[in-house]
Amino acid sequence: MFISEETLADVAAVAEWRARAENELREKMTNGPREDLPSKAIQIETASHPGDCNCGPHIQLFALCEDGSIWTQYHSSGRSNVPTDGMWRRVGGE
Question: pTM (2 decimals)?
Answer without folding.
Answer: 0.59
